[in-house]
Structures are given as C-alpha cells and as structure tokens.
Design a protein that fits this description.
Length: about 160
C-alpha cells in the first residue's frame, strides 16, 4: 500500500492506494509532514482533490477500492450516486439500497466510509435537515456542503 499526504483547506489529507485502487482518504488531525504522491494513481487522486477544493471538479473519476462488508459496499455505492451540491437523508439512502428499515445501519456504514469526499458521506444529513455525525467532524461536513453550494469559488 502506498500513501501520500497533501495539504487541504483544513489540514493535511492522507490518500492511500492499493494495487486495486484508492483505498482511503482521511483528514489528519495532527500536524504532519507532507508526502508527495509516489504513483500515478496517487498523483491523479491528489490532482482531483485539488480541483475539487478549487471548485472546478464536481465528479471524481478515480479507481476506488474501499474495504468493507457487502452492506457497507452497497451504502458506499449509493453515496456515490448523490449529486454534487445536494444532500440525502439516511432514510433515503436506506431506500436507495432496497432496505428501508436499515436507517441506523446506513448511518454506521456511512461512519465507516474509508474514502472521504470522493465517496461523499458528507452529503448525508438527518431526516430533519440537520447535520449529523461526520467522522471528520461536523465543522468539515458543514464546510464541504457549503463549498458545494458555491461552485467555481476557491475557499482554500
């Protein structure tokens, strides 16, 4: 597994890749040294994230390889269908995967998403329209949602 660490609008971001594709994108909470991409896949992921943060990319085209259960994979696939600049509730995601009673399980799968931003778990909100849990922190979730409402504007 290879890794690079790039700057983001709220600190360093780690991108990991396996031979199958991007396996993780995470916000780092501690100060750490940047590490340049060492493979074409990591370089492409870094470029696409940079363009996303600059407001010039709305759809990622990366080869992804998240590791999870079949249920988690189904949720993560459904998350990738949520368009840029929109949100869905946990209940809507549960319906999208054909399991309308699995709202809490969808929330758990959402919280275990290993590929932040690209698998847009930040676009999932509570049924009441309020922001709910986000592994990166609600401040980052709010920032990402606001960022997607202002296409073309750099907020870094």
């Amino acid at each position: 597994m290879t890794e690079c660490i790039i700057p983001g609008p709220f600190g360093a971001i780690s991108i990991k890749a396996s031979p199958q594709g991007i396996s993780a994108i995470r916000f780092l909470t501690e100060a750490t040294r940047l590490k340049p991409p060492s493979s074409a896949l990591l370089l492409e992921a870094a470029k696409q994230l940079e363009r996303y943060f600059a407001g010039s990319l709305q759809t990622f085209t990366l080869l992804l390889a998240p590791v999870g259960t079949a249920f988690q994979q189904a949720v993560w696939q459904a998350l990738q269908q949520v368009p840029y600049g929109t949100t869905r509730s946990y209940q809507q995601i549960a319906h999208a995967i054909g399991n309308p009673k699995a709202v809490r399980a969808v929330g758990m799968a959402n919280s275990r998403n290993p590929i932040a931003i690209v698998i847009p778990c930040h676009r999932v909100i509570g049924a009441n329209g309020k922001l709910t849990g986000y592994a990166g922190g609600l401040d980052k979730k709010a920032w990402l949602l606001q960022h997607e409402q202002q296409p073309g504007q750099t907020r870094c």
